[in-house]
Design goal:
This protein is about 45% helix and about 15% strand. With about 325 residues, it is an alpha/beta fold. The chain folds into two domains: about 1-225, 3-Layer(aba) Sandwich (Rossmann fold), CATH 3.40.50.300; about 225-323, Magnesium chelatase subunit I, C-Terminal domain (Helicase, Ruva Protein, domain 3, Orthogonal Bundle), CATH 1.10.8.80. The protein has a five-stranded parallel beta sheet with strand order 3-6-9-1-10. The chain has a two-stranded parallel ribbon with strand order 2-11.
């Protein structure tokens, strides 16, 4: 059961999350699940990959989340000629002081919006590996720490699109979750014609929280209880993906960690100080599907990794006990 202070913390978290959610939904209409997933990733200290066709609001979602938090925001437009030093920063020789000075790159911010990440070469994409996992940047043997919270929100078009590079496996594994915005329902699209044609709704978006408050909320999520039964359930799911004949690459131990951290954030947003097996099950698709590689046979028969994952989830028994 929640303690009094724990209950108060969860009420604070619900209030702040509600404000951020309302703010984002002023711009992204009719997509509550996508907005929820982005808030879960923020509070679980993860990174978010938004994958979909052009023009459905991927960048709009990323920017509306960034603008809702009064913190530093940088945008990196990934292009084929983008260099790794544009992302991480570069040491420049100062003629006056006769010393090298570090000029920070685009990742030095609380929220980094990486637009069309798969349009840059894998070499440039790899510049994000260290900062996404270790929250630091090493340039010329000097290591620079990144501020907290630190979140990369990257958008990408499907791989089949012209002029895109596949994300390296190591890169995909560092994204806590992948979401797809999808086309809006007809009513939301008609409403969008009213709100988006006169002015850009992002222009009126004011911050409703700040980096310090987000740090507190992340601390609250860290206190959420995960029972041994739920821990075993999360491990059973990821282990099952590694044994599947339809996958050549299953979920990594990092994926298990991300799944449990995301489940803790989901529980806290739902007003609970403990994780249910349902939290893990609900997040399995967005957290695991993008990390898996189908076998040749599965790919040739048109089986998507999501379909394979659904079949795997059906084989793992859900525990009754949560405490």
């Amino acid at each position: 059961m929640a303690t009094e202070s724990g209950g108060a913390d969860l009420q604070t978290l619900a209030r702040v999350v509600g404000r951020v959610r309302t703010n984002i939904e002023r711009v992204i209409e009719g997509k509550p699940d996508v907005v929820s997933s982005s808030l879960v990733v923020l509070l679980a200290e993860g990174h978010l990959l938004i994958e979909d066709v052009p023009g459905v609001g991927k960048t709009m979602l990323a920017k509306s989340l960034a603008r809702s938090i009064d913190s530093t925001v940088r945008r990196i437009q990934f292009t084929p000629d983008l260099l790794p030093s544009d992302v991480t920063g570069v040491s420049v020789f100062n003629q006056n002081t006769r010393e090298f000075e570090f000029r920070p790159g685009g990742v030095f911010a609380n929220i980094v919006v990486g637009d069309e990440i798969n349009r840059a070469s894998p070499k440039t994409q790899s510049a994000l590996l260290e900062c996404m996992e270790e929250r630091q940047v090493t340039v010329d043997n000097n290591t620079y720490q990144l501020d907290t919270p630190f979140m990369v929100i990257a958008t990408q078009n499907p791989i089949e699109m012209e002029g895109t590079y596949a994300l390296p496996e190591a890169q995909r594994d560092r994204f806590m979750a992948r979401v797809s915005v999808g086309y809006p329902v007809e009513a939301a699209e008609i409403a969008m014609l009213d709100t988006h044609t006169g002015a850009n709704p992002l222009d009126d978006l004011e911050p409703v929280t700040d980096a310090a408050e987000v740090r507190k909320l992340i601390g609250i999520v860290g206190q959420v209880y995960v029972s041994p039964a739920v821990q075993r359930y999360a491990v059973a799911i990821t282990s099952a993906t590694r044994r599947s004949d339809e996958l050549t690459l299953g979920a990594s131990p990092r994926a298990t960690l991300h799944l449990v951290r995301a489940a803790k954030a989901m529980a806290a947003i739902s007003g609970r100080d403990y994780v249910l097996p349902d939290d893990v099950l609900r997040l399995a698709r967005p957290v695991l599907a993008h990390r898996l590689l189908p076998s040749v046979e599965a790919a040739m028969s048109g089986r998507s990794t999501t379909a394979v994952l659904d079949a795997v989830l059906g084989t793992v028994p859900v525990p009754d006990a949560v405490h």
